[in-house]
Amino acid sequence: MTSKPVPLYQRLPEIYKIRDGEQSPPDQLKSYLGIFEDVFGSVHDNIEQLYRDLFIETCEPWVIPYIGALLGTSVLSGDTWTLRAGVADTIALRRRKGTIGAIELLAFNLTKWGAHVVELRENLAWHHHLNHQRPDAGGLAPYSLPGVTMNTVIRGGTVPLRDPAMLSLLGTPFDPYAYYADVRPPAPGALRINLPNLAIFLWRLEGFRAPVSKPMFRGTGVNGAPAPGEAGFAARFDVHPLGEPVRLFNTPRYRPDRQPPVVTQVDETPGPIPPARLTSNDQAGNPGAYVSAGIYKPANPLADNLLITDAGLQFHVPEANFTGDTWTFRGANLCAWETPLRPPLNDREIAIDPVIGRVVLGVKTAAEAAALQQNLLMLFTYGAAGPVGSHPVSRPGPPSTWNGEVVTLTTVRFRDNPNGLRDALANIQNFTLPLVIEIDDSFVHDLDLSTVPGIFAEGGQSNLRLNRTLIIRATSGNRPIVRLALPLRFRPLNVVGATPPEQAQFDAVTANLMVRLEGLYFTRAAGFPAGQPLIARAALNRLEITGCTLEPDGHLKLDGTRASINESLNLRTGYGFALPAERAAFKETPEVAVDSSITGPLFIDQPYTLTFNRAIVDAGKGVDADSSTTFALTSASDPVNGWGPPTQIAAGLTMFGRMRVESATGRGGIWVHRLEVLNNQKGCIKFSYFSGESDRLPQTFACVKGPAVRLVFSSEIFGRPSYAQLALAADFLIRERGPEDDQMGAFGFLLESHRWHNLEIRIREFMPVGIRPLLVPVT
Hints:
With 779 residues, this protein is of the alpha/beta class. The protein is built from 15 helices and 42 strands. Strands 14, 15, 19, 22, 25, 28, 29, 31, 33, 35, 36, 38 and 40 form a 13-stranded parallel beta sheet that branches. A 5-stranded mixed beta sheet has the order 4-5-10-9-8, covered by helices on one side.
């Protein structure tokens, strides 16, 4: 909506304003006109919206099918962006009907996924007569053509075994090799290479490009007697700032506005980076499409002189040590990177393992290796099913007011002050206005509550005493990591008043006291107390966890085992007050709201209330695991026999582990294991999946149960790109009978089933006669 028009009173001739001011009391006409100025403004906005409704780009969502009807398009439902794009390009696509460029644009418009279209007849093996060979061009035998080498794949030819980069395309959407015809009937997600088949490959995972951060240094290898051109020192780094394995992705390069549409190329898809394509000086290698290296000035604390490219993986080295240098790249297996690479690493060469997110940089001297250890910055891209958890996504600006009070805004940048977050929380008990702390980078910010100036110790634990609301958030496009040395604990500054007026004042402050954590990735420091949660106290009116990852861990280690699961919240009855008077005076029923976030196990007592929306709670127990003694949500005081807080699921929840709560209501949940509700006469759960493992449920509507209904995830391990993504092998009732007639679970809001079916419906309008489209998911 536009802003309200100029007030009517301001449009009056000046003489009327003068006379109005002379009345007793004054400004009677001004007050009278002010009564219906809002109505006038609403009418004005409605007229403007009627004009905007004439255009597909600006119309209201309900107008989209009416504009589509004027063009004769089929009526679809789902994500508004995809519906607009599908209608907007209708005429352009009809003009190019039957071309693979038009099919790719149609697939992108209706799904927002990366897409690549292949005519599968081109992958069929042809048996040529030796006396009548079919040349590729110009009437000459294929191997006599310019630019063709022994490693070039000829249509219908044999596989060149000496080129790893070309072999890496085997079984991918860009597979150039020849196959015999597959005459089996089409199946969902299956590839059938045959004459009438047209494969539409889809990349469903979203690529998130983490802004510049400092990689985890893992030591320097020494080559005692390097040959000419070889590196004397090898600096080893984990790409992830916390040193965890991460699958590196490429950034999407598809441009839907390019006319005429151009077919997606092999190095432009938003999928995992293939190691063999990273090797320089290789016929099929193309590292420039995936990785870049540049210099910057470390003296600039804001690091705003970095040259950011479109590459999915970027290195930024200090200018003083590497000016004018040209780097080469190599794809390698770095699981055992302590062993020297074969062939040896060259000077100014970078070996990259995109499967686990490791890199090794070859340099000449120890001073250069030390410079990399101190100043190397990296930017990398990773994949996820959607924006649930902490990701570098677009966010609105900070609030300027909160509960009618002007906020105090503090911006934290690691390169300005490594202890900026600690300093921003200093003496927080003295703030008389709401405090908003924005973290404006994606570095690792260490926070030890015991070192915060003005910290309050209660029961031997460090607590943040709050006099007003506290908001800690990431700026738009950033994913800062907060590494905690101690659990977070929040409490009011004052609870017990000496006089009734003072008590009323304290109660009023506490009633509006809130902590909001937005867009942050919380993890544990090396010395974090064993067995402690990330948040151990929330004596507040409300604790909001929005777009955050409270690291559950459980990632897959390089040796194939899983890391241990760590709890995220442990909130007990009594709210942590050591004094009985404070416990009695605290009148709030704290609400914990988890929105678009990933957490580990939650142990919360009944005095609290709990709300989920687009959330994942991970206790490390997948579909086939025994979770009889592993809780994802239960009471903190008595996990086995007690009951957790009253819980509401606004929309979308995936629970890996057992859950015991006092009551539950909501929709769109997936309970991989047992759900037990004490008061099962209260509330109703709709459009959800239950495990069938001795559940104790409230009323249900349109729900399904295992094991009769099969539940399958692409991955159940935190840190994997397809973590918590429903697989196509899951029962269609789970994928298509959740809220809004789409999938159940945390990612239901993506409306992926609508996208899939919209493409199946609309693609029939653009298929030539006799051509059969096959939708094949790549990720």
